[in-house]
Each structure stands twice: as C-alpha cells, then as structure tokens.
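A common beginner's mistake is to predict each chain separately and then try to dock the pieces by hand. The better habit, illustrated here, is to supply every component at once so that their relative placement is modeled jointly.
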Amino acid sequence: MSPVSRRTFLLGGAAAVASAAAALRLGSVGGGPTEWDSSAFPPPGLARVAVLRASGYDGGLERIVEDGLRAIGAEVRGASVLLKPNLVEFEAGTPINTDPRLVAATVLALRSLGAAAVTVGEGPGHRRDTEYVLTRSGFDDALKSVAAPFVDLNTDAIVERRLHSRFTTLERLWLPRSVVDADLVISMPKMKTHHWAGATLSLKNCFGCVPGRVYGWPKNALHFAGLEQAIVDVAAAVRADLAIVDGIVGMEGNGPITGTGVASGVLVFGNDPVATDTIAATLMGIEPSRLGYLDLAARFLGQGDRARIRTEGEEVDGEVVRFDLLPEFAYLRA
Amino acid sequence: MFEDLWLRVRRSLLAAQGSDGGLGPRAGLPSEPEPTALAAIALDDAQARSWLAANQRADGSFTLVGGPVVNDSATGLASVALGPGTAAERAIDHLVGMVAARVPDDPRVPHDPDRRGWAWTEGTFGWVEPTARALLGLRLRRPDDLDAIGQAIEMLRDREVSTGGWNHGNPVAFGVDLPAYGQTTALALVAMHGLDPSMERRGIEALQRLWKLERSGSLTLATSAAALRLHGAPEWVGPARELDARFARMPEDVVTLCWAAIAVGPGLDVLREPS
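With all components supplied together, the output reads:
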C-alpha cells in the first residue's frame, strides 16, 4: 500500500463511517455472509517476496536487509516508518522475540534507503512492564545504538477506527496514533509456531498494535472474539505495508513462548503480508492454506496464491526446515 | 524516608493532570479511568475524584469502550479512589454483577471454571490483575460481601504458580509450569493483604526474588515496593531505592508514576483495611 493510500485508509476511517452503509460494496465468501468491504480491499495483485539467507545476527545484516527491501521493490524514500517487531517476553536463551540486532540493522537499512524517520513500536501482550521486556531482551541497547526511538503502543495515544472486515463482532478497534500516522508500517515477526493459531507470522504480529490498556494483558478480548478471525480483522485494520520475518533462528514446538529454537537461516521480505506469511509458512513445512487465519486473509487482504507471488532470492522449496508442531497441529503439515 | 522521591513523583503527576482533573496514560493524553483512579489514591486529589464521579457510567462502572469491547477493569480501583459513598456503592454493585465468563476447563490450560474472578473486558475470561483490582474494591468498600471476596481469593488461589506468586493467567500451559511475574504478584498481594496469610507468605517470598530479577522495569519496582511495604516487609526499601536512583529515566507512564507515589507516599494507607 502506498503511503498516500495507507493514510487514506486509516485516517479516513472515521469520516467514512456515516456514509459507509450505502456507499460500500460488500465482499462475500462463497455466497456466505458479507465479511469485508470490497471497496476497502481491492483484489490483490502480483506480490513480491524475497527469501534471503542469513547465518546469524552479527555482521552484515544491514546489507541483507537493504537487498531484501530492494528485491521486493519497497519504496521507503521520504517515508515515516514504524517497525513493529514481536517483543513479547524475556527468557534467557529462548528466541521468543524478533532479534533486536535485526531490528537495529533494519533501522539503518531504511535510513540508507532514504526513509525520513524510523520508529520502533510494540505493545507487549504478555507483560505489562514494557520497560522490563525492552531492557532484558536487548532491545533497549540495540535501539540506542542506532538512535532509534521506541514507542510503547500500550500507552500511546489511541484512535478508534471502524473495521472494514467482519470476521469477528469487534466492529471497531482502538489503534495507536503511531500506527495510524506512519506512512509505512513494517511487521517484523519472529518465525514461530503458536499453540493456539498454529503459526505466528506477520499477520498475527499485528496483535501487538492494539493497546493492552483497552484489550488487557493478554489481549484476551481478541482471543475471545475468535482467535483466527481476530487475527484477520486486526491485520486488516493495521494493514501493514511490508513484512520482514526473522527466520534466522525461529521457534518450533510449543511456541510462541516456551518452544525450542530452530535455525532456519533465512529472512523473508514481502510487500504483501499475506504473501509473506504464505511463503514463511511454506518454509516452516506448513501448508499455508491450512492455517485458518491465512486462508481467510488470502480471500481479500493479500495474495495467497503461490502462482501470483513472485519470489526472489533463494528457491523456497530448497530452504524448507520442517518446524516441529504440537500434535494437535499435525494437520498443518505440508 | 524517600521524601524527595515522593515530592518528585507527586510533581510529575500533578504536571500530567489534565485541565479536566483526570489523567491519561501519559502526560497530554485524554483522561482515562485507571490512571485517574490511581492518581486520586496516590495524591488524595479531589480533582481526580471529580473526574471519576463525572465519568461513572449509569451501570456504576468506569470504562474504556471500543465497539462491543467494554473494559471495565478500573472499576474496583475507582471505588477505592472515590471513598465510601453512593458512587462507590454503585461501582461495587457493578463488580458483583460482572464476574468473568465461565470458560470450561481445558487440559492445555487447566483451571477451575468455577473460580472465575474478574475480566479485563466484560464477558471474557478472568485474569489476575483485574481480579486483584476487584478484590481491592470489594474488601475496602463492601467488606461484608464475603461471597464475592471469597470468590476473588479462590480465583487467585487457583491461578497461583507452583513457586508462589502470579503471572497474568494460568500457572500451567501446554504442560509447562509458567513463572510468576513481579508486577502481577505485587498487585495480587496488595489486594489480598491480610486475607490469606499462607498464600500471602508464598507470594511475598516470590516477590522478594522476582523484583530483583525484574529490576529493570520501573512498573515492577513501583508495584513491588508498594506491596512489600503494605505487608510490612522491610525489603520494600530495595525496589524503592532503585526507583529513586532511576527516577529521571523512568518511562513516560502515568500508571508507573502512580504506583511509585503510592509506594513511598501516604496513599498506601488508603489501601489498608480500616481498623
């Protein structure tokens, strides 16, 4: 989504409410109930995803990130960018969070590519003491080393927005001002299994954009609304423009907190979060269409058809590392 | 002790107070129930109480609302902040009628479905922090309601982790024993003060470990100092000293400032059972 259309979508939401009912054409799924506003989600076109190898977090990451962003045609010049990593919890030696060194390298890469401003934001859903997670995880030091500001999305100014999709009954969502005002939002998840959703990637990562002070710690109102459906509605509201998945070391088994590290050695870049998650799930040995939320999102939010995802960099099928799955998620296996 | 910290925190909170008397989550943001209630407790501030009185809903609750999501979790704190009276009675009426949803037990996240506690948002599952807030309101504003107080205590007992203390929710998930957190353990201890000595003892022992492990978080330090001081544990000066030393670099978080003020100021007495 271009910076202009992103702002139109998010900033115009309030004004659009009054006339929405008459003006919107409504999307539908197989003749079922209407679940999204077609005018807000034009049919996705050809998506671009790049899979680049990265053996570790020390050295050379800035260049790889620059290459990845170029490979997907990311236009960042002059843009104010919000990086949304997955920063949830701290447990020494456990790869729970997007690695802070990757986030710092991304800040530098974006500046090098001409971004006007880069901010890092997260609203941790597992801990209320964001400062604790920020410091213990190494984020505080990493962001200071590149002079990048951090905003706690749990305490940011908030703006209420009407949802343009209706997989839940949430209808409206509070979003942080930092998310709404950014020209570009880049979702930066860790590549992880998830014991409720199967896998957590760039769409699920958008949960961190909604404020805990409204939705709680954890953000149980979203889970209660139907987890897979809420993932889709929240991602459709946040509408991240780009995604960078940290699969250098991912998490398998009982993710997203108490799983086991797995070295995949890849970074996945995409100009469409649905397409990015489709490729990232494939890299985990998961059949993307069996992830319920990804299947829903591919109907309107982005490109889920492999034939319409142009991949750059490594051959996807050659980079698959089969993540261990909990037994109840065996059906996800590709 | 900590007079200087108290004055600095107080000054910061007064500077964050909006012209409407309330406080937002950060200075300059619109007023919300939780920071306003905590500030009213911390500072004994009449303007903050006025904001609360003016923003109580017809059903007695204090809320943040987003579409069908109604976060009423500040209602217990507001009932404490308002002091005894009709408004607090209405708030407690709301709490008593708004226990968390009953969610069937699930072996992946075992819990007793009859120990429901209170939720962050109406109609959802119960969690430790909103249950602690409800318990605080109940015990201070309606101490005769032993059923509701007992329900809160039993919920906290059900969620206590194996090493003492609490995280936000379940002690076990997917076969893994989960750790307690300093901040949630502190809030549970503040709420249950004097109600269950053996659970409190385990919680205090846990908190004395946890705040040191989590000392990089100001909210953890502030709530830990408040809980330990309320329980008469001399170790409360440890987290308070750390707060004092780092005051200038604390995050812009009004809730953290409020708990720091409660920990070292006279507001802590508001949280004690009337003798």
